[in-house]
Amino acid sequence: MGFIKLLRQSPLSARIGMVMILINVIAAVFTPYIAPYGETEIVGDVWMPSSSENYLGTDHLGRDLFTRLVYGARNTIAIAFITTMLSFIIGSLLGFFAATLGGWTELTLSRIIDILMAFPTLIFALIALSVVGTSISALILVIAVLDSTRVYRLSRAVAMDIAVMEFVEAARLRGEKIWWIMRKEILPNAMPPLVAEFGLRFCFVFLFIAALSFLGLGIQPPTADWGGMVRENAGAITFGILTPLWPAGAIAFLTVGVNLVVDWFLHLASGLKD
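Predicted structure:
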């Protein structure tokens, strides 16, 4: 009931964002039922225009573009979500440990994070993926580790503010263990900013995967991916064919939707009144 009440009080922009996210989630979950053809099935000539058989035309190999977009939603969103979850698990745990333990633990972890953040993220990812390969698992692990540095900074800052409060000091005096304090005292109070940050980091990871795919080191063909679809069909622009604009528009559509919802949630987390 509380969630329904919250939805009723949400602004129009947040509701629009929720609808945009819901469209993408439905496409990702029900991909086999929505897509008219197989993910790699060739159904016609290259860069054919829209028709009753091919709603958005075909790509550079003659595959149905609408089918590729739907499968691309499933692949890109799923990988971005798993990567963001993993980065938050790593970053939050390290940040909470650093804030709770303090001393040399906090100093060592912070300096390691500073070293990782000193390198441009895209260049670091390109080098790492060139070394470990471009499999899905390697892609998820590399991006999660790089993105966890930003999560560490936020979770550490939030946890340090919470760790000096009276209820945390009382828990320490009772003899509670570090893990109990992190799980029962710090995490519940740190959730609002972390949840808001999750949406922002998801957007970043989603766009980052698309950029890597565009550069050829992300999700590898023939697996459908929106960034890779832009790269594969970029040559169509030369002939006045707008095929690459469809996956580019899908990327922008999901990004705008997530940001609209995140902006509303940040406003709620801030405690400011309208």
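Summary: The chain has eleven helices and no strands.
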